[in-house]
Amino acid sequence: MFFRNHYQNGYVTRDIDRALPLFTSRFGVSEWVTFDPAEILVRTAQGPRDYRARMALGWSGSLQLELIEPLNDDTRELYRDALAPDIADFIPRFHHAAVRRTTLEEMKREVGSLGLPLLMEGEVPGFVFCYIDMRQQLGHHIEIAWASDEMWAFNKWPADKSIV
Question: Please, what are the averages of pLDDT over each run of 10 residues along the chain (164 residues)?
Fold first, then answer.
C-alpha cells in the first residue's frame, strides 16, 4: 500500500533551461508549471534551511515529472546525492518518487510511523511535503505529499487519474 497514489518522479539538474527541452521532447510533456524561483524555509534534521530552487512540473501520461535546479548551497546540499558532480553536466538525475495522500492527518501519521530519517519537510499554502530518506531501502528518497483540491488543480492533476 505504500506506493499507492504514486504520481511523480523527481529529477535534479544543474541547468533546468537545458533539461526542460530534453524532457519535453522525449517524454511528451506539453505544458509545464514553473516556480522560478521557489523560495521557502524547510525543516531538516540539521535545523531550518533556506530552500531556493527553480522548479518545473509537467505530466507525461499519468506520471508527473519534476525538474529541480538548486540555486543555493543549502538547497544543493539536500540534493547532493543525485546532483551531477560536474557543474557543466545538465543531465537530470533521479532523486525521488512522490506519493499522494488524501488527508494531512493520514500523511503525518504515515510519516511518523515509518521511523526513517527525514531529509526535509515544508509547506506552501495548500501543499505540505515530507522527503523521507529511503536510500537504505530503495536507493532514493520518497516524498509524501498532501495538497488541497485547488493546489492539485493548479498542478494540473489529470482528470482521469484515480486516487485511492
Answer: 92 98 92 95 96 97 97 96 96 98 96 95 97 96 97 92 90
